[in-house]
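Appendix B. Raw example, untouched.
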Amino acid sequence: MTNPESAATPSACTATALRKASRRITQLYDDALAPSGLRSTQYAVLSELQRQGRHPPSLQELADALVMDRSALGHTLRPLERDGLVALQTDVDDGRRRQIVLTDEGLAKFAEARSLWAVAQRRFHRLFGAAEAQALRDTLLRIANDDRLSVLAALGE
C-alpha cells in the first residue's frame, strides 16, 4: 500500500524525475515509430548516421555523439546491422579504423520512420507547447553536452 502523502510529494532527485520523463516521452515516440519496426533508440542511431552523411563515424565517435557507452550502442546496432540498415566498413584512409555507415536500406527505413517521428514530435509540441518543448530540448542538450557531468569528470572530484 502506498502512502498518498508520499505519492503526492515529488521526488527531490533530478535523475528520478528525468528518468520518469524520459520513459514517458520514449513511450510516445516508440508508439509512433512502431509501424516502421524501429524503436526510438534505433531511430536516433539512423538519424545521427544520416546527419553525419559523408563522414561515417567510428563506433566510439557514434557512441560519443549519442552520449552512450560503446556496449549499449553495440546492443542497439546489432539488429540494425542484422536487418541491413547499417554496416561496418573499413575506413579507406585508415585500414585500422572501422566506420558505421547507413546503407541504402537504412536510408529508406529512416525516411519511412521520419514521417512517423514527425507525428510524435508534433503531438508532443501540441500537448506540451512548442516554446516549452524548445526550451526543454535546449536545456537537455546543454546538459548532454556538458563534459563536466561525465563519469570521468566526476571521478576527478
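End of appendix B.
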